[in-house]
Design a protein that fits this description.
The chain has 335 residues and is α/β, with parallel strands linked by helices. The chain has two domains: 173 residues, Medium-chain alcohol dehydrogenases, catalytic domain (Quinone Oxidoreductase, Chain A, domain 1, Alpha-Beta Complex); 137 residues, Rossmann fold (3-Layer(aba) Sandwich). Helix content is 27%, strand content 27%. Strands 3, 5, 6, 9, 10, 17 and 18 form a seven-stranded mixed sheet that branches. Strands 13-12-11-14-15-16 form a six-stranded parallel sheet, sandwiched between helices. Strands 2-1-4 form a three-stranded antiparallel sheet, with no helix packed on it. Strand 1 and strand 2 form a beta hairpin. Helix 4 crosses helix 5.
């Protein structure tokens, strides 16, 4: 099969052996995959991974073969997959039902080979069937949308929580903003791209701030909130330099949720966090069922978040597409 191999320095298309499946696995022919911010962090050298490795964990494909212990009804199903494999189902976290934090887990496309290839072997417990009326392109958003829902699985919305500020309106930030709207929150969006800000407004963000045009973003947010600051603040920037404004934009005894995986050391003002008694949250993978239903219902719009499409053979152009414009949101790879 053809696969995009990252060797620690560059990505190249190579012919490699088809994956062999275990009795508990299925073989999936990948149709479409998306490039994630984590993929970019790996390629840019910020997030160490074992190499050589096939990146990619946002994808849709067709089950071509099943292991002898797998229900044969999965054959020919169009599926997407959760990313936490190698689950032991016996550790402390598994016994609590927190499988995404299993002690032995490995992340697809990060720790083990991923989906930027013609074929991928997957444990059957990771699979989710995709309804017919969700397109292949839309289905590549199920994994990151699940992560957007996870924000509010981990961070409760209390009666006093009315306003949420979202820093970073890339793919994840725009997905979080739509989930926040479903939760009844008033949303402030912060980004440096006028196009992303305009799209955010269209998707339900009430107030928008271009961070390149405002010298004091926390002050602007306080002006929107009777001098208090936002009740909840989300970091989806991927930029640790934004954390100063993020913390300062949160009201006293408010909530800050970190979604960025920077891959580098990140300084924050812990004194301000302590003195104003802020609560810090974080999260990663989330509920696929809610994500699938969100797209299926039409409540979450994703097609306008697609900026570019490339063939697998154009993988380097696909990664370069993120550097060409600050307006870029998501690139799709057609396998």
């Amino acid at each position: 099969m053809k696969a995009a191999i990252f060797n620690g320095k560059e990505i190249t298309i190579r012919n490699v052996s088809d994956p062999k499946i275990k009795d508990s696995e299925v073989l999936v022919r990948v149709k479409v995959a998306g490039i994630c911010g984590t993929d970019l962090a790996i390629v840019n050298g910020y997030l160490p991974t074992p190499t050589p490795i096939i990146l990619g964990h946002e994808f849709v494909g067709i089950v071509e073969k099943v292991g002898k212990d797998v229900d044969k009804s999965w054959l020919n199903k169009r599926i997407t997959s959760e990313i936490n494999t190698n689950i032991d189902f016996n550790c402390y976290y598994c016994k609590l039902g927190i499988y995404t934090q299993c002690i032995s887990r490995k992340a697809i496309g990060i720790d083990v080979d991923g989906a930027l290839a013609e074929l991928i072997a997957l444990e059957s417990y990771l699979l989710h069937e995709i309804p017919d009326f969700i397109s292949d392109d839309e289905a590549t958003f199920i994994e990151p949308l699940a992560a957007a829902f996870q924000v509010f699985e981990m961070m409760p919305i209390d009666d006093d929580d009315k306003v949420i500020a979202i820093f970073g309106l890339g793919k994840l930030g725009l997905l979080i903003s739509q989930v926040a709207k479903l939760k009844g929150l008033e949303i402030i969006g912060v980004d440096e791209s006028d196009r992303k800000l305009k799209l955010a407004k269209k998707l339900g963000v009430k107030e928008i701030i271009n961070r390149l045009k405002e010298k004091n973003i926390p002050n602007v947010i306080q002006n929107f909130t009777d001098g208090l600051g936002a009740d909840m603040v989300i970091d989806a920037t991927g930029n640790p330099d934004a954390l100063g404004d993020i913390i300062a934009s949160c009201r006293t005894r408010g909530k800050i949720h970190i979604k960025s995986t920077y891959g580098i050391e990140t300084p924050i003002n812990l004194t301000d966090v302590v003195v104003r008694e802020l609560t810090l949250y974080s999260s990663r993978c989330g509920p696929f069922e809610k994500a699938i239903e969100g797209i299926k219902s039409g409540n979450i719009k994703v097609e306008e978040l697609i900026s570019d499409k490339f063939q697998l053979s154009e993988i380097n152009k696909a990664f370069e597409s993120y550097k060409l414009s600050q307006d870029h949101i998501k690139t799709i790879i057609q396998i």
